[in-house]
Amino acid sequence: MNIRSREFAPMRSEEWICLVSDNTFTSEELGWLYCCGLEWQGLLLDPENLPAVTKAFLDRGMDPNQLVTEDYPDEAPEKNFYHTPLISATRFEDDSTAAESLKLLLEHGGDPNTIYEYGDFEENVFEFYVEDEFVHGPDLDCRTFYGLLLCRAYGGKQRSGYEHFMMLIDAPISIFKEYDRYWYEYEHHENYSSTLYVVEKETGKRVARYH
Q1: Which of 105, 106, 154, 178 makes an SS bond possible with 64, Cβ 3.0 to 4.6 Å?
Q2: How confident is the model over 42-81, as pLDDT tens digits?
Q3: CA–CA gap between residue 59 and residue 194 (Å, rounded)
Q4: CA distance from start to end of the chain
């Protein structure tokens, strides 16, 4: 049976883990379940346990870089769904749960330079989080801020070559793999512009500038 035609009930994390562990799904089917079932359709009842579910999907062979599409012919075009697990992971919850799931995906072969496209539009995963920042700044939520840090820490780059992060300490960008050590603050300027700084939570020290 086509997995897209199956009816999946909302379930708790333990039930989802059992489902993917006890059945045979292709990598593409797992990607569809993860992006369209758990996130888009809201079928994970306890999203605070998403990291455990993410790990189970990865252990069963989900490709974190897969482009997942779902068309809704009876809806407006903007209702159509185009995502990858590297983006869907942070759409579940606005907290460090989402970031931990994203980190798992990146550590299991996820590439933040993966390009996803639909129609005439294309961007890579890192650029998705950059665009998210421009939409939501200066009031970033966890998922956007940690998405920026993690994708850059794992090698994500703007295709134009522009570097958004400037380190202010003698340390590599990879320190942001420990995303939960950092938060941000904005410095506002007289011309109504502002600069985002990455701040070490423990010391309050500015460690990088994002622009």
Answers
A1: 105
A2: 899 999 999 999 999 999 999 999 998 876 555 555 556 6
A3: 42
A4: 49
